[in-house]
Design goal:
The chain has 226 residues and is of the alpha/beta class. The protein has helices at residues 16-25, 40-53, 73-78, 100-106, 127-140, 158-168; strands spanning 3-9, 29-34, 58-63, 67-69, 85-90, 117-126, 173-175, 182-184, 193-196, 199-202, 211-213.
Length: 226
Amino acid sequence: MEPLVVYVYSYSAGYQPDLEKQLDKAKVDRLPVQIDNFSWRTRALKTMDVAREHIDRVLIFVDAWDTLFLGSKEELMALRLDDGITLAASKVCWPDVDRYTDYNKKQAFQTISAWRYVNSNPMAGLGRNIAEAMEWCWERWPIKGDSCDVKTADGEVCERFFTHAYLDSPFKIKVDTMCRLNQIWLCSTPGDLYLSGNRIYNCMTGSSPVFLHMNGGHKMDLSLFQ
């Protein structure tokens, strides 16, 4: 089943032009979704809307301003993203550090890496699975505020919502702990990663992630990925 990359933006900035060129070069279908008054709440609501509209497609939701695509359509299809919901993995247990013990319980019998905590960019799955899970979770743990700041004091961000979905809901949701779908740049340490050709290679997991999430204000020389 061919994937559809849904990239969300409030205005064209950051890595968006590069992301679009990379997806077109790989012949991966893409759907731009503009949010005029961006907030984490509107981002989540728009995600549900798109999932309802494309129930039979494998959807991959990314933030356009800080994400790059380094792989191929064939790699995406080989990941079997139609099986449940896949969330990106971070090294940081955020925004609620006290949920560390809940992760330990959830992942007690799984193969994990240092990248083991929920991040919502990218998030992938069959449209119907995403819509069903998000609607169920929204009834219980909605994002109430309209902040667009990652450091919002009340913690009303997508990561909290999807952390609830992963740890507290009955749905089949997994974290990409082996970094096959995505590599988050934040908190990378010397020896974690290296550049091989035009790909990032994760030395700890032995994977070459398809997406690269350049969060945390990091910048990279994009000529490396031409």
